[in-house]
């Protein structure tokens, strides 16, 4: 990673290693079986890493598709000049169907109300909408239930025959792919194959069938179909400890979150630290103030247990994480205001990883990186010149 001499005095920043992201895209593409293409999932501001720079880097590394949750995210990609295939899947009634169709965005449909809205919008726009039909094969979240699937595919086929839409995709999403061997995995795959067969009988012939999120991309080649759809693995995180470590799959974490100490001071023993005095200094000691708090995405649930590298060692959050800051006890070690505190990164400089924070806070690495706040500047490394 380049060394950025601070052009200003930094409080806290997230360094984003786009070379690592490109390498992760390539590693995942190599893992995709049967020539399956890759959709880089860049929803939620690229899992907190930045939508547009991550989308560009993923394209440079060969991602044929980009995936977003909301239509706004997909439209933002177009506004930034992306012209490749983009799918967005989280629609609500009255959504910007027509703008999506006019922007050549593939849209997901899982219910008859959505099919009716997209068909009407396509007619109004005077062009065919590209539609991916989503089956609920067992996740119980979005997606069409098996009982409703025959009607949905018949209606989609009718809209296709009428020239309003083209069914370009057929897809589903796993519930437990991050728990290898979970019995629901095989059941969901069987349900998906049945849904595909029903659609084929109805006369639908999609361009791409896709099912695999990161854990399925990493561990379930039989679920790769025509396109894999990883998110978290692009950013170099493992979907779960059960799946393996990032290194097991040749993935490298993309984000490093660092702060610069705002205060270092000696305090006597018996001194309460931070709101509620949940930490009391065991003896005379040195406290360091890390200027990062829950407004920056540092989980308050990591109070008393979050790890941070300061003065060459892992320290533990002393007392509560506040909105903008937390304290660590350096014991007999010394440091100075302005010294670096690394909250997480790839781990090769001895710093904790996002997974370490997830364990401390009782959550998943996804949430640690995605919640890094808007107040934290993202500094990009390895951006292409174009
Ligand atoms: C978020 C998401 C993905 C990516 O999931 P990861 O576990 O991050 O790989 C894929 N598909 C859908 C529908 C999603 O919502």
Describe this structure in words.
- With 386 residues, the chain is an alpha/beta fold.
- The protein has 2 domains: 32-234, TIM Barrel; 255-381, Lyase, Ornithine Decarboxylase, Chain A, domain 1.
- The chain is built from 11 helices and 19 strands.
- It has helices at 18-31, 43-47, 51-60, 71-79, 97-102, 112-125, 149-161, 183-201, 214-219, 354-361, 365-370; strands spanning 12-17, 37-41, 65-68, 85-88, 106-109, 129-134, 165-171, 208-212, 227-228, 255-260, 263-267, 272-273, 279-280, 285-290, 307-310, 313-318, 326-331, 340-344, 378-381.
- Helix 1 (18-31) packs across helix 3.
- It is elongated, with a radius of gyration of 24 Å.
- It starts with 11 loop residues before the first strand and ends in a 5-residue tail after the last strand.
- Pyridoxal-5'-phosphate (PLP) binds at residues 41, 43, 89, 173, 213-214, 229-233, 239.
Total of helices = 11
How many strands, which pairing sense, and closed or not: the largest β-sheet?
9 strands, mixed
DSSP strand tally: 19
Going by CATH, the homologous superfamily of the largest domain would be Alanine racemase
The overall number of domains is 2
Order of helices and strands: EHEHHEHEHEHEHEHEHEEEEEEEEEEHHE
Domain Alanine racemase C-terminal: 254-381
Family: Belongs to the alanine racemase family.
Modified residues (N6-(pyridoxal phosphate)lysine): 43
Function: Catalyzes the interconversion of L-alanine and D-alanine. May also act on other amino acids.
């Amino acid at each position: 990673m380049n060394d950025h001499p601070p052009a200003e005095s930094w409080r806290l920043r997230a360094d984003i290693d786009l070379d690592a992201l490109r390498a992760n895209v390539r590693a995942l593409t190599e893992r995709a079986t049967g020539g399956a293409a890759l959709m880089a999932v860049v929803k939620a501001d690229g899992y907190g890493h930045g939508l547009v720079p991550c989308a560009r880097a993923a394209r440079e590394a060969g991602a044929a598709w980009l995936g977003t949750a909301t239509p706004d995210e997909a439209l933002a990609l177009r506004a930034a000049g992306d012209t490749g295939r983009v799918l967005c899947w989280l629609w609500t009634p009255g959504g910007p169907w027509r703008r999506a169709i006019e922007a050549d965005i593939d849209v997901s449909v899982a219910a008859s109300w959505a099919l009716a809205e997209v068909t009407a919008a396509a007619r109004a726009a005077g062009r065919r909408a590209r539609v991916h039909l989503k089956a609920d094969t067992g996740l119980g979240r979005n997606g069409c239930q098996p009982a409703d699937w025959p009607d949905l595919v018949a209606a989609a086929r009718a809209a296709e025959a009428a020239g309003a839409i083209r069914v370009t995709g057929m897809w589903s999403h796993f519930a437990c792919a991050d728990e290898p061997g979970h019995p629901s995995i095989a059941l969901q795959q069987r349900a998906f194959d049945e849904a595909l067969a029903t659609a084929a009988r109805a006369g639908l012939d999609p361009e791409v069938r896709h099912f695999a999120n990161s854990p399925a991309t990493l561990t379930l080649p039989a679920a790769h179909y025509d396109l894999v759809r990883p998110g978290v693995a692009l950013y170099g995180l493992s979907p779960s400890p059960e799946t393996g470590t990032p290194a097991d799959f040749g993935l490298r974490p993309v984000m490093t979150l660092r702060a610069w100490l705002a205060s270092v001071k000696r305090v006597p023993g018996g001194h309460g630290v931070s709101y509620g005095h949940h930490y009391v200094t065991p003896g005379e000691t040195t406290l360091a103030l890390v200027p990062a708090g829950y407004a920056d995405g540092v989980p308050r649930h990591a109070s008393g247990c979050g790890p941070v590298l300061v003065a060459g060692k892992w320290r533990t959050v002393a007392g509560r994480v506040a909105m903008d800051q937390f304290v660590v006890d350096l014991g007999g070690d010394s440091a100075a205001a302005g010294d670096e505190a690394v909250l997480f990164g790839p781990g090769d400089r001895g710093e904790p990883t996002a997974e370490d924070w997830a364990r401390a806070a009782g959550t998943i690495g996804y949430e640690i990186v995605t919640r890094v706040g808007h107040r934290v500047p993202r500094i990009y490394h390895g951006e292409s010149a174009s």
